[in-house]
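Quick one before lunch.
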Amino acid sequence: MAKETEKKSAKKLSANKAPASKKKTAPAKKSSRSKAASAVSLAEELKTRLLHNFSVQPEDATDENWYNALALVLRDRMRTKRTQYISKAHKQDAKQVYYLCMEFLMGRSLKNTLFNLNLTEEAERVLSKYGVRLDNLYELEPDAGLGNGGLGRLAACFLDGLATASIPAIGYSLLYEYGIFRQKLDNGWQTEAPDFWLPGGQCWLLPRPELAKKVLFDGEVREWWNNGFHHVEHENATVIVAQPYDLMVAGKDGHGVSTLRLWKATAPSDGAIDMTLYNQGEYMRAMERRAMAEIITHQLYPSDNHREGKSLRLSQQYFLVSASVQDIVQRHLRKYGTLDNLPEMAAIHLNDTHPTLAIPELMRIMLDECGYSWEKAWEIITRTVAYTNHTVMAEALECWPEDLFSQRLPRIYQIVKEINNRFSEQMMKETDNDVAKVSRMAIISFGLVKMANLCVAASHSVNGVSRLHSEIIKQDVFHDAYTVMPEKFKNVTNGIAHRRWLCQANPELATFIRERLGSDEFVMDASHLEELTPFADDPDSLQAFMAIKRRNKERLAKYVLQQNGVAIDPDSIFDVQVKRLHEYKRQHLNALHILHTYLELKENPNMEFVPRTYLFGAKSAPGYFLAKEIIRFIYLLGKEIENDPAVRDKLKVVYLEDYRVSLAELLMPAADISEQISLAGTEASGTGNMKLMMNGAVTLGTMDGANVEIYESVGPDNIFIFGMSTEEVENQKRMGYTPQTLYNNNPRIHRALDVMFRGFGGRQFGEVAGSLTSKDPYMVLADFEDYCRAQDQSAAAYTDTLAWARKALLNTAGSGIFSSDRSIQDYSDRIWHCRPVTGM
Ligand code: 26W
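Model of the 26W complex:
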């Protein structure tokens, strides 16, 4: 690895303060091109791209050529729009949002970009001249799977919302060469294949080599005082270069454009050592150094809700925040020449604790490079940084061994130690020397650096992602901090990009809404969906609504037949549980109930039964053994039922491989029932629940996360609630939960679990069954009976077609508040305090 000594002194750094740009740019002209004119231009731009980039005439172009050409044309158009947008934002002194997140689960860009730039029809027209179908091009695009699940998808939805609201924003993340693994099921056992997404995804990335940054690891810190200035030198550091690549997200109608800046790790290519090595013929050593550097952004860590504690993960986190914070500072200094007004002009958002080191990194730059005093730097930073918590799982709260931390990040460690000392001192004062409380809030204790505590100490705002979750944070996760700093704690309920999840994923439903409401306003403002409510009393509308659902179910059935070789009946209830696989989400509660139903059906073949198709989609963290066992259990249960001619026409279980954003876009519109069955108090919010309700699925769920707000929005008649409340869960836990008693006393539970212990399909499921009868922190058996009741209730409700249609439609009507446009509005008003750029 390259060793380099970076000299940082207050003097040298003041030279870094570039004068504020005085350049005035001409105001962006409103596009006045007619539709026809821009169609011609799209055609011409495409032709030019085909010719210049791929050396083909349109007549000879393959679908792949067209896909790439289209992506490049759109990328350039977004770049132009972004430039105009930014210059307008600058003139208005608009506050900038910087959203730091280790994951952005973007999915595909083509359909969304065409839709938001209002170019879908034009593109279709141009392509049809050459016999090319736009739908085929969509399928060529790989998902940009740079995230695990909820956290990353939320970040992606927010970029869309920010652009549409004309709030200038940059999302910062890593350019993982390999995104979330491709899941393969080998007789039900999950195996992971690498997701090399760049060959089809690269065309959306704009390289910005001029903005590259250096990130320093390892080495030692030397400090001294001279002329009243504190000097710091980071000696013998390992230098990694962060190369930025921009992926742009156009807002609806294309005035605002968000940037997602992805950093790729590379070895410094300008180092003299490189050349020396080459000259000595030490080619292998040079290559090794390159590989060591590039490994940082090689791969996304595939576990969510479970910390890894690995050195490479710490390196990824620091690499992200160091490059991003340097970029933020550079941008800010270029415009204002000072960081004094950072809190007024910039909001830095930490999406969960993963980018926490942005706090000490900004301290480092302000102290070592800009000559700020500790007090002033801390004051500025704590007014700039805000933090969102996304999980209550204790095993997800990140902490780092102090020795690993201090070795890999020596200067950052010094700063964190000092933050801890000062913070602890302040907390002692504010708690009247409550030592126990202060030590629980400490940032470093028992040899661990605690990221969440650092976030809470340094952020001016700490928010949860649903009302219930935000309460739990105050009462439980961060209770100590809440008692001392109650004003920091807020709630912003999550949301989803309704233009992607409704308008694009379910175009027929969008047309239905447009026709009923007599306008397109809901596209920009999802609160208009409420106006669908009166149509719940209109039989014709209800019928049309269900006809759309039926066609979406047929579309999904086709996919299932192709992928799984199973024919599913669109007249059966499509009961969908799609999300990451985790015990707390309780896919095994769903499966246990299916097994129970299967046994009932076998025993009473003539019992009344509403045909039901259970669809599962979920990836497990590769090392999460029990989760993989649960997948195998569900998969083989499906096989077992499918092999049973007496039951298979009534009951089906389909496990869809490789659940991802693009598959979700196919699934959400086809669902009748949305399974949201986590143990109350465990799911921070959920966002799949919002996508499903928006597409007219009725929630069958617990009073957990955002389900509570869904319940309030649709009312008790349009949702199936079951299970313990958070209070009941707490009480049970206090009294001591003994699942063994439930197993012994409940014959239905007993029978189903015994079948699992005995096994079927050539395997036993003792680990899964055993986990339910021993400790089970997620209390599956305790909620089992009530879950059965809710399942039965939903089946009975489904048989009344019109009444069901009413419920479904009212779910869409009640989903407006779950648009991420509303979430962005809330963040802007309550946390970031920023205003949209006007005149866009
Ligand atoms: C340390 C490893 C790790 C990785 C990812 C820990 C935690 C995470 C994420 C925060 C887990 C996550 O994605 N949480 C989900 O965030 C969604 C968006 O707010 C919520 O809707 C989900 O309820 C929550 O599980």
